[in-house]
Amino acid sequence: MCAYKNFIDNVEIFIKSGHGGAGSVHFRHEKNIEKGGPDGGDGGKGGDIIFLGDDKLSTLYKFQYKRHFVADDGENGSEKKCHGKDAEDIIIKVPIGTSIIDKTTNKIIVDITKNMQKSVILRGGKGGLGNTHFKNALNQTPRYAQSGLPGEEKNVILELKLLADVGLVGLPNAGKSTLLAVISNARPKIADYAFTTLTPQLGIVNYKNNSFVVADLPGLIEGAAEGKGLGLRFLKHIERIKMLVYVIDCSTDILKTFDTLQNELKKYNALLLQKKFIICVSKCDTIDENKLDSLKKIEIKNITMCFISSLQNKNIDILLDTIISLL
Question: In degrees rounded to 5, what are phi and psi of residue 143?
Fold first, then answer.
């Protein structure tokens, strides 16, 4: 579970819907009415447990402090055919990209992938019928009513996988955070040491009447798929991202670094290699022109490479044009 600072992306909670209220056994007792018939009302419905996607949320942090969600029971029916009050539903807001997983079966119940997407996970029990419903020619005074149906309960796991258009992938200190700060409204922490980014950062890019979401994901290292470094805490967030930008420091062996990054993705989930991607060679302001010219001669079959300097804002427009064309 990613639990750095306030970023929580995996948590277990208990949910329970409400029981239905019982139907009432009651008979009319009114002046001048010698034999009042049955007038027991129906019970109210128990509250549902509903999950709602909210694009204002970006973490499951609030579930650290509240992990039990129990809906109220429906009210019992009463005399004069009065219906018991239905219980209020409990609406649980979660970030876009949250999967609701049944802990017992480990199967996904629902993926919340849209803002305001509403999913009823547990339904409240139906209220029981009052004795009014059971009067007939053979039984004018029914002395029974239905109990309300029970609610449901379940332990579920909430797992957040970020939804973004573009994911920045690279080794620690490759320049991903600086790039994100230059192209978007995000203001990630930036420093000259490994693992500056400990949690995924999202930014919105507005460029040439286009808008898309970019995720700066914690740096990969060799062995990440086996859990080294930030490992699996990072890799799962790539699954829902549309395309990847491999950010590679120009001072490293570009081909070797690219192979390392791809190998880690393949070990985790080979399907990730089917995503569209480009290579972004970063920090080109740190080398001389001759070295840069030699790097530009490197060719990887059918792969687009952009050479940029985030600090000097050099070729950022070319990078963004390339991303938009692929999106």
Answer: -110, 35
Tokens of 40: 């027991």
- Compute the distance between CA of residue 182 and CA of residue 320 in angstroms, rounded to an integer: 11
CB 92 within 8 A of CB 69: yes
CA atoms of 97 and 114, how far apart (whole Å): 8
Token look-up 């005074």 returns 141
Q: Is the separation of the CB atoms in 29 and 40 below 8 Å? A: no
- List the chain domain ranges: 1-160, 166-326
CA-nearest of 47, 49, 40 to 22 is 40
Orientation angle between helical segments 316-326 and 176-183, nearest 10 degrees: 80
Q: What's the confidence (pLDDT) of residue 189?
A: 55
Say what the pTM is. 0.71
Tokens read off for 147: 């109990």
pLDDT at 28: 85
pLDDT of 224 higher than 50 = no
Residue 34's pLDDT is 59
CATH code for the structural domain at 1-160 = 2.70.210.12
**166-326 domain in CATH 3.40.50.300?**
yes
